[in-house]
Amino acid sequence: MRDTREAQAQIARLIGIMADLRDPDSGCPWDIEQDFASIAPYTIEEAHEVADAIDRAAWDEFPGELGDLLLQVVFHAQMADEQEMFDFADVARRISDKLVARHPHVYGDESRDKSAEQQVKDWETIKAAERAGKAEKGVLDGVALGLPALTRAIKLQNRAARVGFDWPCAADVLDKITEEAAELVEARDTLGPEALNEEFGDLMFVMANLARHLQIDPEQSLRAANAKFTRRFQAIEAALAAEGRRAEDSDLAEMDALWDAAKRVEKGRA
Question: Higher confidence at residue 4 or residue 30?
């Protein structure tokens, strides 16, 4: 097991650097001007960059991306400390206490002889008790508004499913997708932009529910689809560049044929 003293020293160094950057007399003007709201988008962005490094198996980049994410925590904690709200120690203490409380089979007298599925159920029971202690009355209380929309949809649906508000199987969700798609077409043909936007949101919400029933992470699935689109479009550009042309010099029929060629190469049918 690694010696934790070096980790503690580097955390202390990072906290000190952040304090220096926020010093009103000698710090960085940009860092001094920031507040919780202005930093929040960077926090979300850095979390996505961590996920991206994992998806690409970019392990040489991974420590740096985790460091960027850690910086966000330290930045928020420093601003809170300046306002005498809390500090980094409070942040670390809260998560440590939570981990201990949520693992009674490790830190308490509960048996470790349980499946991962049972452990998830036990966690939900513990979290429900925590929400009750926070006076969160509704089933959906506490699902963060700032989550990516697909992730929040899954969490909302999981909460509702725990009290029985859910389709019995994926086939029922597929039927609902067909229904919502028809309503989207109707909105496009007969209703205005507001209704069209609403129907599109309904369809996306049901698609997220299908992902949940199929045990698919929709965020990861869409990231993979984005990466595949990027690879294949770049293959189109490369094929055209070999002839001294660019995409704007081509047309849809040619690019579609090049897309199919790239697809065949990816699938090993070149």
Answer: 30
Q: Cα separation of 41 and 64, whole Å?
A: 18
**Selection from 174, 177, 196, 193 nearest residue 185 by Cα:** 196
**Residues 170 and 213 sit within 8 Å (Cβ to Cβ):** yes
| pLDDT at position 146 | 77
From the number of C-beta atoms within 10 Å of its C-beta (0-12, 13-18, 19+), residue 129 rates as: exposed
DSSP letter, residue 102: T
Segment 99-108, tens digit of pLDDT: 998 888 888 7
Same domain, 163 and 82: no
Clarify whether residues 211 and 227 are in a common domain. no
**Length in residues, the chain:** 270
In a domain, 18, yes or no: yes
The structure tokens listed for 95 are: 């998560």
Q: Read off the pTM.
A: 0.61
Range of the domain at 82: 4-101
